[in-house]
Write a sequence for this structure.
């Protein structure tokens, strides 16, 4: 991979306020398209350096029976973020392996309780047992998973910095995301998967529209 390789046609539109020299228009009716410029998103990392990081992380993860995985993921993100450039400025990842490890423990604990409950319920038969198993499945796949996804994306944004400013995902919109996810799963199941593209569109729109960079908001189009 060559240095300063542009990532395909992916470009981000930045307001003038993020450029080094701001230009304030005196025309209040100035077209919105004139207030933005396109900047290429470039990656200047060395694939061989990334390969060495991956090999080392894989070895240590196997050696520690997976305990090193959160730290390995953090090291990999720090490398990728650092070599990602936008308008000659680099991104920065400030997350830690300790933070990810706590999240892994919570997720593993929830899944352990779920499988343990199913194991215990498997010893009994009846409508009540089937109902409890169904409610547990709904709780995991239709409540816990979307809750975890939204929380993780919010964490990832808050630990991503550009020009020392973090990205933010509105916490008060988590319930809206969970409802959209739940509805999407229901309709996708009833339509035998035909609703999946629409679900992905709705979920992506909700995420992007509630994401911000400092006081600048993103918009899904």
């Amino acid at each position: 991979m060559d240095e300063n390789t542009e990532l395909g046609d992916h470009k981000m539109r930045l307001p003038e306020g993020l450029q080094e020299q701001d230009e304030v228009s005196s025309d209040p009716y100035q077209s919105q398209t004139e207030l933005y410029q396109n900047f290429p998103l470039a990656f200047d990392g060395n694939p061989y350096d990334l390969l060495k990081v991956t090999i080392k992380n894989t070895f240590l993860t196997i050696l520690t029976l997976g305990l090193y995985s959160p730290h390995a993921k953090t090291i990999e993100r720090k490398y990728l973020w650092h070599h990602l450039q936008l308008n000659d400025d680099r991104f920065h990842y400030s997350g830690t392996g300790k933070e990810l490890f706590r999240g892994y423990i919570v997720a593993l604990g929830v899944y352990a309780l779920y499988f343990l409950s199913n194991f215990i319920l498997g010893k009994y038969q009846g409508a009540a047992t089937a109902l409890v198993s169904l409610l547990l499945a709904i709780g995991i796949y239709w409540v816990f998973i979307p809750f975890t996804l939204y929380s993780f994306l919010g964490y990832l944004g808050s630990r991503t910095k550009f020009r020392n400013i973090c990205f933010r995902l509105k916490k008060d919109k988590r319930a809206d995301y969970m409802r959209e996810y739940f509805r999407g799963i229901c309709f996708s199941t009833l339509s035998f998967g035909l609703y999946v593209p629409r679900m992905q569109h709705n979920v992506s729109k909700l995420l992007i529209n509630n994401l911000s960079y400092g006081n600048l908001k993103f918009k899904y189009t």
